[in-house]
């Protein structure tokens, strides 16, 4: 079934003239984009609710529970509150960039929806440069952060904007290279073909379990870490480091404009999870997804929500890293490792060996990368533990002093 | 299909505005931006001529040359901006009219 | 009604409508680059022009170049330019004119260039439509193939150029204490 063709036919049946075909097609695309974009905005309310519930359970609280079943409508009320707030614009703000920045930040995130394969035939536009398109969208977010930081004419906003741009640019490189590991394997950048390639046939039945994470765990790990940084989630949420930067580049924004940045951040982490699912976790593939097409979107959304909950789990568990640690981790650990991984994969795939030995060698290289990342992180954490123990060890004698004899008192 | 002339006129317009920025702007960064506009105009022409040439699926030279231009432009901007920043550090200005220290 | 330099068809097709919208964006962007007094607005205009160029590539069915354009120009070059503007921000609030002494001459030269280019273009019977492209995938594969076969030496030189430019830029911009 093709929804767009049905819509076009419906318009002709309603009496649209044949020579205005571009208008009819345009209306069709507009309706499709409108539906998907608004669904995403409603989804954001649910995502915020999930975040608050998960984080509060981790912190031994109950979380929102007053409005609606399980407090589901709490976010709706919060959105209403943000909408009804006064819209303040600083007098010295640079008007065009101040006004365009929130729109750009949401736009850059929503545009990712166009190439996400929700099901076997459910994709907005199956571009032949799908993966590269997703990568290019990241640059819109960078521009939005710069414009917001500069446009608010506030030095804290500008500094936070610089930090965010440095973070996004640094982590974009390992993320992109890790995304190209499955692309190299399949030889296409179409999202739909990448999802299709992750099937596993047992005889004639598609088990749908040939996920690339089983073959490329190293690439997945690096993608996931970089995606956490790209979506400004803990442990890389220097954007919201309230104690250091007040609130980040959106400090001067209030009401709806602030809500748009907020929305963009939540949707971005969800969509980066969706991309992880499409590239590494089989997309809409799953047991019997080939036989029952309706299962495809269900599998896809279930996996994506799982990744989202994992991200929130990390948010509730990890402390925030310092900016120098963050940059060092990107440039000295992730970039060399992912470059080595891609190079190894390319060489292995060109070796004149039978297919399964090639796959095995790729797997070995990936496991080596996973071990290297975990080892480096473990060593680092150990060193930090020792350092912080020393830093907080009692240096003075205040805690160990004997009480002074009170004889001199009177 | 879009007529080839449209591409060429758009490219000519972008090239001319880039030329004006390169010749007539005072700030060194604005001049660099003008150069970028001119490179983009050239790229539009390359892509347009590739598309309207003979067998565009086989003759990819236009696209390849456009990719080379993009990469060279990236290198050029990096070096150019580094130069501008070190000039600014020494002279406290990026105003091209004031950078006349080599004038005899 | 003045005569247009190109004949306007009675009812534009969908690609033509899209092209016109993209071209308007690119033209507004280019004009902002040239005319804005505030340098940051010039940079925003430059981003709009880059997006316009990327849209033009996509209309011309060169999706790979279009997406690379957004990735490199908007993601990297515009960010670099904006950073440079902010690092040299003493200039931005100066009361001086954005144009230099020779801007009058420059305007005349520029206008002449544009007029001559358009006049030259009108005299040539350009093709109205290219050959239809059915398999966009093959073009991307062909690009990759050409880079490692016919154009391998320019490709390697380009890689070296990028590396040298990167190192050189860091050396130049480094703060020597």
Care to describe what's here?
The complex is a heterotrimer of chains A (410), B (104) and C (177). Chain A contains 13 helices and 2 strands; from the N terminus they run αααααααββαααααα. Chain A is an all-alpha fold and 410 residues long. In chain A, α1 (3-13) packs across α2, α5 runs antiparallel to α6 and α6 runs parallel beside α12 (323-350). Chain C starts with 13 loop residues before the first helix and ends with a helix. Chain C is globular, with a radius of gyration of 21 Å. Chains in contact: A-C, B-C. Chains B and C meet through α1, α2 and α3 of B and α1, α2, α3, α4 and α5 of C.
Distance between the termini of chain C: 65 Å
Give me the number of helical elements of chain C.
Answer: 6
Provide the helix percentage of chain C: 55-70%
Radius of gyration of chain C: 21 Å
Rg of chain B, Cα atoms, Å: 17 Å
CATH classification class of the largest domain in chain C: Mainly Alpha
H/E series of chain B: HHH
CATH architecture of chain B: Orthogonal Bundle
Which stretches of chain C are poorly predicted, pLDDT < 50 over at least 5 residues?
none
Quick tags:
heterotrimer; B: mainly alpha; Helix Hairpins; 73% helix; elongated; C: 177 residues; mainly alpha; 2 domains
Brief rundown of the structure:
By secondary structure, chain A is mostly helical.
Secondary-structure map:
The complex is a heterotrimer of chains A (410), B (104) and C (177).
Chain A lengths: L2 H11 L7 H38 L15 H11 L10 H16 L19 H22 L3 H32 L4 H6 L4 E2 L2 E2 L10 H14 L11 H4 L9 H25 L15 H23 L5 H28 L4 H38 L18
Antiparallel strand pairs in A: 1-2
Chain B lengths: L3 H21 L3 H24 L9 H31 L13
Helix pairs in contact in B: 1-2, 2-3
Chain C lengths: L13 H22 L3 H21 L3 H25 L15 H20 L13 H13 L3 H22 L4
């Amino acid at each position: 079934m093709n929804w767009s063709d049905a819509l076009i036919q419906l318009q002709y049946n309603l009496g649209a003239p044949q020579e205005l075909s571009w208008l009819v097609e345009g209306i069709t695309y507009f309706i499709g984009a409108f539906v998907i974009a608004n669904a995403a905005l409603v989804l954001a309310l649910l995502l915020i609710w999930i975040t608050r519930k998960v984080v509060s359970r981790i912190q031994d609280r109950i979380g929102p529970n007053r409005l609606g079943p399980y407090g589901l409508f709490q976010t709706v009320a919060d959105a209403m509150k943000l909408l009804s707030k006064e819209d303040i614009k600083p007098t010295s703000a640079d008007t065009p960039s101040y006004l365009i920045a929130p729109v750009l930040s949401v736009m850059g995130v929503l545009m990712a929806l166009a190439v996400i394969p929700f099901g076997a035939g459910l994709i907005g536009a199956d571009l032949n440069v799908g993966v590269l398109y997703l990568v290019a969208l990241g640059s819109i977010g960078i521009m939005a952060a710069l414009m917001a930081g500069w446009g608010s004419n506030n030095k804290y906003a500008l500094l936070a904007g610089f930090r965010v741009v440095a973070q996004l640019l640094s982590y974009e490189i390992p993320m992109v290279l890790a995304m190209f590991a499955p692309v190299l394997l399949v030889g296409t950048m179409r999202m739909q073909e990448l999802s299709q390639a992750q099937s596993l046939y047992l005889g004639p039945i598609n088990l749908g379990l040939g996920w690339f994470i089983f073959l490329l765990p190293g690439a997945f790990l690096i993608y996931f870490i970089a995606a956490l940084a790209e979506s400004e989630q803990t442990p890389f949420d220097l954007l919201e480091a309230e104690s250091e930067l007040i609130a980040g580049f959106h400090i001067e924004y209030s009401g709806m404009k602030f809500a748009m940045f907020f929305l963009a951040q939540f949707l971005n982490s969800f969509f980066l999870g969706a991309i992880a699912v499409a590239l590494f976790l089989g997309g809409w593939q799953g047991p019997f997804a080939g036989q029952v097409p309706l299962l495809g979107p269900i599998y896809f959304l279930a996996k994506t929500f799982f990744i989202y909950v994992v991200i929130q789990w990390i948010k509730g568990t990890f402390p925030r890293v310092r900016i120098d640690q963050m940059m060092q981790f990107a440039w000295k650990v992730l970039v060399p490792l992912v470059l080595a991984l891609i190079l190894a994969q390319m060489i292995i795939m060109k070796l004149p060996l039978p297919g399964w030995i090639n796959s095995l060698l790729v797997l070995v290289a990936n496991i080596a990368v996973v071990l290297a990342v975990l080892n480096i992180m473990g060593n680092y954490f150990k060193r930090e533990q020792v350092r912080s123990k020393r830093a907080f060890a009692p240096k003075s004698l205040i805690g160990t002093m004997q009480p002074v004899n009170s004889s001199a008192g009177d | 299909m879009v007529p080839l002339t449209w591409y060429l006129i758009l490219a000519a317009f972008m090239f001319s505005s880039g030329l004006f920025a390169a010749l007539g702007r005072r700030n060194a960064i604005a001049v660099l931006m003008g150069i970028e506009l001119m490179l983009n105009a050239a790229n539009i022409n390359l892509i347009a001529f590739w598309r309207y040439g003979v067998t565009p699926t086989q003759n990819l030279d236009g696209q390849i040359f456009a990719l080379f231009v993009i990469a060279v432009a990236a290198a050029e901007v990096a070096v150019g901006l580094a130069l501008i920043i070190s000039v600014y550090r020494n002279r406290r200005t990026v105003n091209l009219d004031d950078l006349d220290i080599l004038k005899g | 009604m003045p005569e247009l330099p190109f004949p306007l068809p009675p009812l534009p097709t969908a690609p033509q409508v899209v092209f016109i919208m993209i071209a308007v964006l690119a033209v507004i962007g280019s004009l902002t680059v040239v005319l804005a007094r505030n340098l940051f607005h010039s940079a925003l205009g430059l981003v709009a022009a880059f997006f316009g160029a990327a849209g033009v590539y996509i209309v011309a069915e060169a999706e790979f170049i279009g997406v690379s354009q957004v990735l490199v120009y908007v993601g990297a070059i515009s960010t670099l330019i904006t950073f440079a503007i902010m690092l040299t921000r003493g200039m931005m609030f100066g009361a001086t004119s954005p144009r230099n002494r020779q801007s009058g001459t420059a305007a005349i030269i520029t206008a002449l260039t544009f007029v001559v280019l358009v006049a030259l273009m009108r005299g040539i019977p350009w093709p109205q439509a290219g050959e239809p492209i059915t398999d966009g995938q093959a073009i991307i594969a062909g690009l990759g193939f050409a880079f490692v076969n016919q154009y391998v030496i320019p490709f390697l030189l380009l890689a070296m150029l990028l590396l040298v430019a990167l190192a050189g830029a860091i050396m130049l911009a480094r703060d020597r204490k």
